[in-house]
Amino acid sequence: MIKAAIKQAEPKIPLEFSFVFSGRNSGISEDFKHFWEEHCDYFHEEINSYGTCHTEDFIDTPSPETPHNRNRPEILPAALARDCSGEIIGVVYVTFSEIDVSFLLGSHCYYQSMYIKKECRKTNPFRLVHPLYQTFLKGFLSEDCQRDCRAKYLLSKNVNPDLHRPASKRYFERVGFRTLGKHSDGFETWILPLEASVRKQNNTINSS
Fold first, then answer.
1. Residues 6+ apart with CB under 8 A from 45
2. What distance in Å separates the CA atoms of residue 101 and residue 107, rounded to the nearest whole number?
3. At what angle do helices 198-207 and 126-140 cross, to 10 degrees?
4. How many whole angstroms separate alpha carbon 131 and alpha carbon 124?
5. What integer pLDDT is reported at residue 135 of this predicted model?
6. What DSSP designation does 139 have?
7. Which residues of the chain are modeled with pLDDT < 70?
8. How many whole angstroms from its chain centre is CA 179?
9. Strand 151-158 to strand 178-182: parallel, antiparallel, or no bridges (unpaired)?
């Protein structure tokens, strides 16, 4: 009886990882909107719990219905993880943003973010996080990906302390990111060129 209860409480095993950045599938879009409406508050709470002062970019992240404009970039789902019932349990999304040209990174960029349902992280979360992120990178860096050509870089603001560990940094470097350093507020900024060596980066991803 106890064993059955424990087994029932375990997270469902992911069945499918998919790259969905094209945004043409309205069904996927509706699924993502529902998922984000349910979990965006948890995402913000988790970001704030890391103790960094630099959370305004995450706190101001709009709902998927928010129209795109300069100050409130639209959330674009890029990769999804689903459990055996078809329910979304993890997402990688990007935002397309205008940036200060004085940064010498061009006029626009993509920011990446990931969120996994809390109950799905309890047992071996790496089995979920790694293939989901691999699915995202493989699709987003492909020559067929319909990215906006104005964006020259993919940026990642690594607020989670787990991403500051040596193993995490080595992984980011292996797939093509380079660090811009650690901010005084505690997060690290990493960038990945979107135009240079796309095939080489995909070969690295496929072999990892």
1. none
2. 5
3. 160
4. 13
5. 96
6. H
7. 1-14, 23-27, 49-72, 123-124, 183-186, 196-208
8. 17
9. unpaired
* pTM for this entry: 0.75
Do 13 and 131 contact (CB within 8 A), yes or no?
A: no
Superfamily covering domain 11-207: Gcn5-related N-acetyltransferase (GNAT) (3.40.630.30)
Strands (E), 50-150: 75-83, 88-98, 108-116
Do the strands 178-182 and 108-116 form a parallel or antiparallel pair, or are they unpaired?
unpaired
pLDDT value at residue 56: 40
- For 5, phi then psi, to 5°, come to -65, -40
Dihedral angle, C-alpha 13, 18, 89, 157, nearest 10 °: 120
Please give the full DSSP string across 106-124, using - where no structure is assigned: -SEEEEEEEEE-GGGSSS-
Please choose, from the candidates 40, 80, 86, the residue with its C-alpha nearest in 3D space to the C-alpha of residue 63: 40
Q: How far apart, in whole angstroms, are the C-alpha atoms of residue 205 and residue 208? A: 5
Structural domain boundaries in the chain:
11-207
User: Tokens 């990882």 map to which residue?
Assistant: 17
CA distance 58 to 128: 23
Find the helix or strand (DSSP H, E) in which 206 lies.
Answer: helix 198-207
Find tokens 């104005």 and name the residue: 150
C-beta separation of 11 from 130 below 8 A: no
